[in-house]
Amino acid sequence: MANQNSTEVARIATRMAISNRDEEEILKESYFKQGVKVTAVNVGGNINESIHKILERALVASKRNNLIRDEHLHEGAVIGATRDALMQVSNRANAQNVGGKIGIARKGEHISVCIFLSIGLLHLDEVVIGIGHRSLPE
């Protein structure tokens, strides 16, 4: 991917969020070769009670996989993008049990966070997806 822009980074974050564990490892290697830093982390539970954990997991995964530095500006970018993604899914998932994955991608000054969730509703499973983006210095 020659010229990474915010749209391409958002697509990559989405692919990470919808991947299974085996695909995730293959994607990590492929994107690493292209100079894109990626990570993914599973989340679950009651959405209203899990917001803090979702934010925390996105931040920890970003630091652990070197997508961001341990700096206020970088941490704020991840938290802000994650909150944007949460706002997009929270209305449909309100007070429901959810399970899914957060995908995060960074290339240059662009970082995107995608949240892909399955909402348990009796025997019917609903799906919802949200995405957030921030720009931050390299």
Give an overview in words:
- With 138 residues, this protein is of the alpha+beta class.
- It has a single domain, classed as Hut operon regulatory protein HutP (Hut operon positive regulatory protein HutP).
- Helix content is 48%, strand content 33%.
- The chain is built from four helices and four strands.
- The protein has helices at residues 6-18, 21-33, 47-64, 72-93, and strands at residues 37-46, 97-107, 110-121, 124-135.
- It has a four-stranded antiparallel beta sheet, with helices on both faces.
- The radius of gyration is 14 Å and the shape is globular.
- The mean pLDDT is 94.
Q: How large is the share of residues in beta strands?
A: 25-35%
The gyration radius over C-alpha positions equals 14 Å
**CA distance, first residue to last residue:** 18 Å
Coarse structural class: alpha+beta
Helix content: 40-55%
**CATH homologous superfamily name?**
Hut operon regulatory protein HutP
CATH level 1 name: Alpha Beta
- Count of DSSP E strands? 4
CATH topology: Hut operon positive regulatory protein HutP
Q: Any guess at the CATH architecture?
A: 3-Layer(aba) Sandwich
Number of domains: 1
Mean pLDDT: 94
Strand line-up in the sheet with most strands:
1-2-3-4
What string gives the helices and strands in order? HHEHHEEE
Low-confidence stretches: none
